[in-house]
Amino acid sequence: MANTTELLSFYDRDFCLTHYATKLKGVYGGVVAPGAAIWEIYPSFLDARYRDEFHRVFHGGSPASIDLPRSSGEAPRSAFVFATANGVGIIESRGRGGRSVAEEQEHVILLHQATHDVLTGLQNRRRFGEQLQQALAALGEPKSKIALLQIDLDDFKAVNDTLGHGAGDTLLQLAAGRIRDALQDGESAYRYAGDEFAVIQLGREQPAEAERLAGSLVDAFKAPFVINGIPVFVGSSIGIAFGPEHGTDGEQLMKAADIALYAAKTDGRGCARTFNRSMLLLLEQRENLRRSLRTALERGELYLEYQPLIRPPSSVIGFEALLRWRHPDVGVIPPSVFIPIAEADGLMDDIGRWVLEEACRQALTWPSSLTVAVNLSPAQFLGGSLTDTVAQVIDEVGIRPDRLELEITETVLLEKTIDNIDTLNTLNVLGIRISLDDFGTYYSSLSYLKNFPFDTLKIDQYFIADLETDLKSQTIVRSIINLAHGLGISVTAEGVETSAQARWLIKENCDCLQGNFLGRPLGAEATNDFIRRSPLRVVRAMEESNRAV
Where do the EAL domain residues begin and end (predicted)? Predict the structure, then answer.
């Protein structure tokens, strides 16, 4: 609307101005501002001669061309009035007389096509940019704000991939309808791009009203969409920013809302977050880490630590290799921070191969009875070359396959289940042990245990942490141990931090223990030293546990 030559304006059901062409303000001056009454711009509509016709259109009647009064010597003026979803629109004509109603209707159709998204009927990206700039320019009061809500659909890609693009288009149309239904006067919705939408909210008490609207939108997407008889669940994540507080021009405000949207996605999706400066700092830090991570491997900043696996009463049977990153400026960065970045950026194939090769080479320096466990990322299964990589590393390093245990989480089985089970079966045929890590979290489907012969189940430390006092945790852990043994699967308990936990697990015939109580993660040289001294170290720890019984 900033670029149109039309004297165009839109009004809500309270007869208040919501959007207008820049040219209209040039003609009527300061009276043109969001929230202005239609009578302030067109006072003649208060006249009984025009009021009835205007009200007829306002209440859903057909469009009308109304001749406006003019001063002596002034060119003819007319107003084409047409109903909209939220009120009325007016196109004023000056000069040679107004166009016919048919001509004006055709003109409105063309104007609508230029400013609205064809698929959803919402206003389009171009209209969004114009109206955002216009709303920001109209801010006058120091405490006045506009709210921008950026909306992104959660899991939309999965719908396109599984049900087809036709279903995706239908979903976008239904989503647009839910957004439209949640709006009140002074709120306008736009389809920004793909499955991204935006809402501009004017003249409200902020931040309360923006948070209210965001909550309504999140709730609106909790019910399933029914497409071709199939219920589809797609949530919404929302980022909120306020002008001029978070930006005095459209680009600044959109960046702030995008950062808040990213925070909503990171916090679990299906929620709304309001921009704050700390989000920007976190995003900048994350981007710096992302750039650094791309060169961390070649710079030798990645390294492994090894945590012992203990078979009661006192045998060290192997170690789990744990990836670490020592950033030259930041220091040691937790895997929970940098692994998701590596997965998202497609770095896990290279990093995963390095980890596998490094761990296997280290294991060759240990007694031949000891195993090494290596974690696999779900991202390593996506390329289809995992089995070749593992086979090549085993051949190049020269380690026996049965000394290598690969640990996966249930996330691997949730993604492309059939292909991933085939990959695991191939690895199993090579003689490599397969462990299901973090068992008890996620879905813990028993079908996994039936469909694949896991060698080991690792009970998640969540259930071990309160094992001494919580009867529910005791029941769950006992059941997992009995279930696994019934299937011929070994059980490892993670996160053993106290002698009481170790005693309880030993009493319940848990096959293997892992945790700081029995041995913290160690560097390569310290691991070799631990192996030399481990019989005495572990015996002492176990003796302490037994004396406490």
Answer: 286-535
